[in-house]
Amino acid sequence: MTDTKNTPPTFGRYPILDRVTLPADMRNLSVDQLRQLADELRAETVDAVSTTGGHLGASLGVVELTVALHSVFNTPDDRIIWDVGHQAYPHKILTGRRDRIRTLRQPEGLSGFTRRAESEYDPFGAAHSSTSISAGLGMAVAHHLRAEDDPSYSERNVIAVIGDGSISAGMAYEAMNNAAVAGPGANRLIVVLNDNEMSIAPPVGSMSNYLSRLLSSRQFFNLRDLAGKFAKRLPSKIERTAKRAEEYARGIITGGTLFEELGFYYIGPVNGHDMNQLVPILRNLRDADDQGPILLHIQTEKGHGYKPAEAAGDKYHAVNKFNVATGEQKKAPAGPPSYTSIFSRELMRRAATDERLITVTAAMPSGTGLSDFAHKYPTRFFDVGIAEQHAVTFAAGIASEGLRPVCAIYSTFLQRAYDQVVHDVALQNLPVRFAIDRAGLVGADGATHAGSFDLNYLCCLPNMVVMAPADEIELLHATATACEYDDGPIAFRYPRGSGEGLTLPEQGEVLPIGKGRIVKESNVTPNQKSGVAILSLGPRLNESLRAAEELAAQGLSVTVADARFAKPIDTDLVETLAKRHDVFITLEEGAIGGFSSLVVQHLAETALLDGVKFRPMAFPDKYIDHNTPAAQYEEAGLTAPHIVKSALSALGNAPTSEKQA
């Protein structure tokens, strides 16, 4: 009897896929069987993602490549690194995770990205782009060094699959530049450039496919090696000329001169959906001796093989749950506008009267809410590609000439440009405005995309102003304030998702820098010292107010304040709260050591810390896995019940159940 406990719901529908539990099961299949496996794998991927949502288009584009790689190379000993990880869903299905693929991005389920802790077939975690070549080169060098020390250790192939968007980042070129001089360890590095949008090479045709197979063949490598040995017997000037002639001849045929100049042996472009081409070329590369590093250029189509995805403008890059037959995505119930759209609204309003406002993003115009700006003000909008470091310094250059750049970047991606924020912006006190989206915890994308650290890495910088609006109205004010602030760099952070549903004013107000506000006043007279003060930074304000209601129901006086600014802190407000209350709680959606550290530093310097029970509340010292946002904040301990518990514990009034425990 078949054990159906972990059987995929599609089991029995796909005869070849049902026989593949691990990649080793694929290695005796014919090319025709591999082609059928790819068709079945594509259908299984579509069916799975229709139930979970996720990044579908990129995965559909690499189905044939995934099958070819795992059938040709000896994974997991040979390493396959999927840059970003958006394209790794078919890889997960083929590597022992088909029975769990419908837990993708769900609580306690599979990650939406590659993850070392999840499988030995995921040799490197990847959720930020453009890291694969660097990691792959490191692995290849390590394998070579181990093989030199241990004769029983065989060197492994390392394959880095990187998209044409990801290879626009400087880090990819740094890695390729280093690969050319990294020594014999780099010989087993193969970079697969998955070109699915940018059309950076001539169209794929039968002639280029033929040439790619020829250039990757052992016969050509042997002929090239023989020619090289002959050339070495020639005078050095002629030898250099012969080598350059061979490289440029292949460059003219294939268009790979750039990669050749970086030290890679270039092959391509190849039709990435043609198994008859992929399998023999990959076998040739697997069996080639000391010819690396190699770059194989394939061309694919995002969403390939699923008509609704092929017809979509974004090729179904990221989707909600959807109907497989029609492609119609399930829409969430209508709710309040998103924080991103509210930022966009105020920015557009101000741009209409301020021609100095310039926007910069790093390949995320839609995600950061700049699409409308790009459409209406195309000459004032700059998408620099996946190049956050360049984006920040580019904005610094704009600011240095008297314009007002708004650099819109997700919190997790701004981490990649930290040196530029420090050296090129803050040190020079240039008025770059950082609109930091996806601050705090982000749900299904998990720890890799959480905005956990921006308060820490920005608040420590001299000259930096940092705002954290509590709701959508406050975001309007923060956007307006940043647009008008010319005295130095300023950042404002806001979460993913919808606002509170508040009625918005016509426009944002310019706030006084470094001033917070009292939202709920306690009933304690100014000369008394009693009760609890809660100083909230950012969208936890509602939880603070709920906690205040519960504490008030227990007879405690509570003051709730909205800090508005993480830096500079409102020292007058901080001192007032400390002087008038027995317990002082700070609350922030960030890692330990952010906003609260500035507050406690001031309390210590003014000796007010000696007279108040200070309790900072921030994210715990761990990475919080993907889940629903509500569950993540519960795990983080930043909900109203946690605030109440912290206040009562500080007062010595722990709940009865805890005292008994």
TrEMBL record:
Its cofactor is Mg(2+); thiamine diphosphate. Homodimer. Catalyzes the acyloin condensation reaction between C atoms 2 and 3 of pyruvate and glyceraldehyde 3-phosphate to yield 1-deoxy-D-xylulose-5-phosphate (DXP). Mg(2+) binds at residues 164, 196. InterPro entries: Dxylulose-5-P_synthase, THDP-binding, Transketo_C/PFOR_II, Transketolase-like_Pyr-bd, Transketolase_C, Transketolase_CS. Pathway: Metabolic intermediate biosynthesis; 1-deoxy-D-xylulose 5-phosphate biosynthesis; 1-deoxy-D-xylulose 5-phosphate from D-glyceraldehyde 3-phosphate and pyruvate: step 1/1. GO terms for biological process: glyceraldehyde-3-phosphate metabolic process; terpenoid biosynthetic process; thiamine biosynthetic process. Binds 1 Mg(2+) ion per subunit. Binds 1 thiamine pyrophosphate per subunit. This is 1-deoxy-D-xylulose-5-phosphate synthase. It comes from Neokomagataea tanensis. Transmembrane segments: none annotated. Belongs to the transketolase family. DXPS subfamily. Its EC number is 2.2.1.7. It holds the Pfam family Transket_pyr. Residues 337-502 form the Transketolase-like pyrimidine-binding domain. It comes from the Bacteria. It is an enzyme of class 2 (transferase). GO terms for molecular function: 1-deoxy-D-xylulose-5-phosphate synthase activity; magnesium ion binding; thiamine pyrophosphate binding. The gene is dxs. Keywords: Isoprene biosynthesis, Magnesium, Metal-binding, Thiamine biosynthesis, Thiamine pyrophosphate, Transferase. Thiamine diphosphate binds at residues 86, 127-129, 165-166, 196, 306, 388.
